[in-house]
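[step 3/7] fold_predict: job queued, chain A
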Amino acid sequence: MDYLIFQLQAPLSAWGETAVGEFRPTANYPSESALLGLLAAALGIRREEEDSHAALRKGYGFAIGVLTSGRLLRDYHTAQVPGRVALKNRPHHTRRDEFNLPKEDLNTILSTRDYRQDAASLVAVQMCDGAPHTLNDLAQALAKPRFTLYLGRKACPPASPLNPQIISADNAQTALHDYRQKLAERSGETASAFERIVWGEGIESGMAHDLEVIRKDRLLSRKHWQFGDRIEYIALAPQGEQ
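[step 4/7] structure written:
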């Protein structure tokens, strides 16, 4: 079976979890919705193209090999925003348009935003029945993306090319191992062990899981930022990792 494997690493990344009030947490590794958003951006799919996003969600399964979850960085964030009443019936296509108001009509919001520092992971993508794009199409898009790619937030650009490759293997675990070994051989370094491997439905993992968790990152509507629950499986000590 063929798998598309690519790498994600950056000085800062942010994989949003359920946010309540002013706190914006991050997971230790990418969410399914974040990976779908990454593919959509690479392909040039816009946020309002709901059918295209739905086709991506149904068309692929993901496994993530976490090389390092990095370190937590917590940012106390302030931002100015116009009030809803002030924006009513006013076109505001840009940030400059939003701020073209008297100072008394601007408000300050406070939030705490979490990031992961120096996190790195590998992603395996497997096609499901009815997938809208071939793995080769996805690989070409990731190599030459239509829209700018970032790891969770616009302040988090990748630190290196995603280096997408198609690897034939019996399962996702083997494909991730093969890709990781190729990276190590090219750099002349010893291959790093995975901290954990996580996966969802729609992919042949090749592993038994240690944990089964419910994660609220199943994309329902990209336009309206709506997400549902899904089951995620986690191997804390993947077979063969030392």
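[step 5/7] annotate
Residues 172-187 form the longest helix (16 residues).
Residues 136 and 199 are 21 Å apart (CA to CA).
exit 0
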